């Protein structure tokens, strides 16, 4: 365990490039792995979660190599096996801490006629997988798992996968994506109906690789996605944009520390991922998007955040899918806002790397912030001033809890300590150096 301390900061300033988008990085490796020929991926997130996906695709027969050093981590080349061409792995596939990697990979594995085994760390092994297993079983796959559908899991792939039409009971991009990836190797049309639109990186990436994917809008903000199976897909170049979920941390820090102004270059601003920006603007945040452009089918912009006086707002439940990973740092922003911020429809936070809802509530209380936690809600009673801080927060192996409270430490009256900063490497290697380069004071305890 690596304890980190974040000290109250002076103004933050500078222009930086955040790491590549984690969600897109996972999908780029997997889809390139079932394409024919070589794909070149630039800007791939070189963090533990994504490297676990790279290792898994190698074990399944794809060639995955880091090629050359460029500004953003490197260029990766993937020589794919073609749709239906993955091979039986010779060992257990260890997905580390990555729920996205595990769930999406289950979709690919479910449609290949061999048996494979998935495992993960303590945090991943506590997370539910039944929501993914249920539709994949209808497509012909079989699973053996611990109670509650928890890892380690044996995946018995379908000899002849069948397409299905599946109505997802909850808003989940991971369930949707697992079904669509399984549908690649099933004849005919695979359909997924989601109650509310979730991040559409899988649909965009599949289209980028030449797969026929149709999307229809439905009632109540839902969508029907139809994929034509057994396509002939070929390798493509992919440019991974900066991760808005990672950008959220320096962005919120700039809003909260007086006198700050920070620009985050090349951030993905897919409208199904920008709920945090919308919410912060409603709170009074000074956020500008410049240099808008397209990168491999994904909208990208430079995002500039300037110190702002924030007010509490009600965050509608239907916005949750567009910002589900950003609620911890939004709660930190709410702690300094004037008035109450109410977040509803966020029960999904309880089945992330930790029970994020409870972890955020406990951490804020320890730092002197009044909060009220509900089964699927969180109310933060901000006072329009810096909270006391001065606490140690247990992050429970959760990278986003660790980074959120390090941001709070920069804006609090007293330093905030997190009990373990090591999980940050799963999504944002170099986070501490980047924050300190902007003017923050994050250091290892005892250093």
Quick synopsis:
This protein has twelve helices and 24 strands.
- Poorly predicted runs of 5 or more residues: none
| CATH-derived architecture of the largest domain | Alpha-beta prism
Number of strands: 24
Question: What is the CATH topology classification name of the largest domain?
Answer: UDP-n-acetylglucosamine1-carboxyvinyl-transferase, Chain
Number of helices: 12
Give me the Rg, rounded: 21 Å
Question: What is the class of the largest domain in the CATH system?
Answer: Alpha Beta
CATH superfamily of the largest domain: Enolpyruvate transferase domain
Biggest sheet features? 4 strands, mixed
Query: What is the straight-line distance between the termini?
Result: 14 Å
Q: Looking at the structure, what is the overall shape?
A: globular
Provide the spatial order of strands within the biggest beta sheet: 22-23-1-24
When the domains are counted, the total is: 2
**How large is the share of residues in beta strands?**
25-35%
| Portion of residues within helices | 25-40%
What is the arithmetic mean of pLDDT?
95
Structural class: alpha/beta
So what's the oligomer here?
Answer: single chain
